[in-house]
Specification:
The protein has 227 residues and is of the alpha+beta class. It has helices at residues 22-37, 39-52, 60-63, and strands at residues 57-58, 77-79, 83-85, 94-106, 112-122, 130-132, 136-140, 156-160, 167-172, 181-188, 191-197, 204-207, 213-215, 222-226. It is built from three helices and 14 strands. Strands 1-2-3-6-4-5 form a six-stranded antiparallel sheet. The radius of gyration is 18 Å and the shape is globular.
Amino acid sequence: LLSSHSRLHGSDSYRVPWAFDEEAVDVTRLFTRLKLSLMPYLARLGQDAHASGVPVMRPMVLEFPDDPGAATVDTQYMLGETLLVAPVFTAEGDVDVYLPEGTWTSLLTGDRVTGPRWVRERHGYLSLPLYVRPDSVLPVGARSDRPDYDWADGVTLHLVELADGHRSVTTVPGAAGGEPSVFVVRRDGAAVRVEARGATGPWRVQVGVGGTVVEAAARDEVVELTL
């Protein structure tokens, strides 16, 4: 489910989670909801792939061409420029993950690991290595029950390990082909300023994963906070 396209395949059999057991249903439900909450991010990646040809799922070397450690890693990938995904290929749940330079944050647990380095982790069926790239702004949607909602309405901008001097523009595509919502983020020292342009509804800012949430008023407002 952490890819551009997700579907249940079955030609001569009926392959749905509930045909196996409740655990399969729980696993599918968890990661389906996770993907749907990431639609503000994934929808923009799809538009970028259409416009530029840069794929949604990217080999590590594509995002880190100057990192020799990433050149030959083929057991993990970047989902867009912000999320690192390392599938688990062993029955025991052991997985080796290469993290490039900087402090990476687990989207599932909030744990932080500083690279460049290899780390070994053990995961059950309800988790896997899923890390947010440092110095990133990750938009997460307010809904997880369907993909075709207004992605900008109630969106939370996760500010993850922003470097001093950070400048970025985060675009959330408009629903049904409407105008996008644009969020401009700047950090100067401990001060962070987030400005919304064309926002269709209320939005929030969260420092890191599981950090302090700052509510913003509806539509085109400015949030200022101190890290």
